[in-house]
Amino acid sequence: MALRHNIYIKHNYLYLRIGLLILFLVPAKVFSQQDPLYTQYMFNKLAINPGYAGTNDMLSMMVLSRHQWVGFDGAPSTQTFTANSPIANKNIGLGFSVLYDRLGPSRQTGIYLDYSFQVKISQNSKLSFGIKGGGNFYQLNMVELKNIAPYDDPAYTDNINKFLPNFGVGLYYYSKHFYLGASVPKLLENKLEDNDHETYQGGKEWRHYYFMTGALINISSGVKFRPSIMTRLTSAAPVSVDLNANFLFANRVWVGGMYRISGSFGGIVQFLITPQFRIGYAYDMNTGELQNYNNGTHEIMLNYEFNFRKENVHNPRYF
Length: 319
What we know:
Layout lengths: L1 H24 L33 E9 L9 E11 L4 E12 L2 E17 L2 E17 L17 E17 L2 E7 L24 E7 L1 E2 L4 E12 L2 E13 L3 E8 L3 E9 L4 E10 L10 E10 L13
Antiparallel strand pairs: 1-2, 1-15, 2-3, 3-4, 4-5, 5-6, 6-7, 7-8, 8-10, 9-10, 10-11, 11-12, 12-13, 13-14, 14-15
């Protein structure tokens, strides 16, 4: 009985690996995760919305490392660095982001610059218009696919190395206790394969549309509630919706949970070491059969805001 159980597990694991192979060999409409996912997206908006650049009063730098489906070979892994700051009269913002993403035999390194212009809507709110420009260095090592299904095919000895230029746009409305955003970080649908590469015929970068909103609700003098929602739309995959509910205690600790309608749930905790420096950790896991073959997803974030004006920072950043 134990031997039969071990054979069953090995067979299912093999099917998962073959499924990963299929993701790379069929047209990209089934490749649903071209753009990285972020559980702590509410503190990482610059990666998906250029309108966010400069909306804080200080230079802000963030490092985030996400490891998805830990324990599963070829699972997604993403490292991100972003920096943004207002300049001059504070109606203009600049941003910079570097992203390294790995999924199976594919690698992509993206470098982007952001520019935003803010318009005052009311005494306490602004609307920011943003543009993003840059590109991805895309690599695909076909040899690695032999480890999954060693077919005798010349395509498995080829590599793809391409630079994929792109640009995006975004709108971001914000006040102290509310935000609403819409963006398309990559407008161009670049082909991922060379013209003579039959293996990846039809593969391309699919355009993604992001919509996000969130609010801050004062429950008491020591407790604040922050619900948020983010929706991702693309013709290459089903609609994905992230629902988050977080609580801030004594302006020092965030604790909350998330549910992704596409099939995962998890928790978030953040510690505000100072009003300018925070450390965040998120963990989520799948709700489907894939949860039996991995140890969940781990995401760590470090964020620091530089207060060059030496003014006292009485309240932490809520979004």
